[in-house]
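Sorry, explain these tokens?

___
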Amino acid sequence: MSSVEQQMATENNEIRPSGGKMQAIVQDRYGKTADVLRLEEIDPPQIGDNDVLVGVKAASVHIGDWHVMTGLPYLLRVVGFGFRAPKARVRGMDVAGVVEAVGQKTTRFQVGNEVFGTCDGSFAEYASTLEDTLALKPANLTFEQAAAVPTSAVAALQALRDAGGIKAGQHVLLVGASGGVGLYAVQIAKSFGAEVTGVCSTTKVDIVRSLGADHVIDYTQEDFTQSGHRYDLILVMGGNHSLSELKQVLRPGGTLVPVGTEGGSRLVGGKAWIRAMLLSKLVRHLRPLASQPNQADLQFVTELIAAGKIRPLIDKTFPLREVPEAIRYLTAGHARGKIVITV
């Protein structure tokens, strides 16, 4: 496309890549396996006045992609993801790439900027999103590393700082410390000056320790709820412990933050998170997290990265056409770090 054609397309809120189509991973129905995903040539996304069109260089896979693929728990369909099929046809939420065009009211970015953040549809050659969901890519990260950051790191930050009210010197327990959010929670908690204990499986103890955890509990060898230790702040990102079991290891005046809806029933998800949502108005120590990606927190994370206080950890990369295999790899539970898609 010539520069004149590019300008005309931008003014019409539309970008047409070479050939008029783009490759993307699409989904037209919910399904239990990644077989419902397929690589297809489709029209590139249009952009609105406040949008940014990103030429995708990399994206990352996380458990939210599995939830949208399967439509589970069913509560997600009710709250707006689509009752019979996903509203957003292209999968993928985390993105890193180069700005290809901006809407008429967009002021924070210009064509050529390297950015990262969240969107609907990052498993594609192009993705459109509001400028408020993006930030400039950290200069010391590759596109692949940057794509591994947004959703997981922001969720960890909001769980610790906003829901948990973390303070220097506190004893923090991270249940599910080796997961996507957990790996960032270890590092961010340490950056706030906390003493961190991570809970994970045997094969991931070394990773959690290498990221700065002061203590690591292998849940296959030890039940942390029976240890006798108590904590000021507990983040629950995995497992299926009841609230009463978790409360046993919470200090008086401490805070319990269930993160996400993993485990539990197909209807509503993790029992600790759902019960916390229902009881949080009545029980002072419960602070369930409903993470909301935003530019301010992305910028906060960027500053931590620049300062060397947190770093993304990538286990494996897959090309765009192998997104189904990447999701299978994620759900197998063996990943030692984030899973990244290269475009």
About this structure: The chain has two domains: 3-149+312-342, 151-279. Residues 1-16, 262-283 have pLDDT under 50 and may be disordered. The two ends are 20 Å apart (CA to CA). The chain has eleven helices and 14 strands.
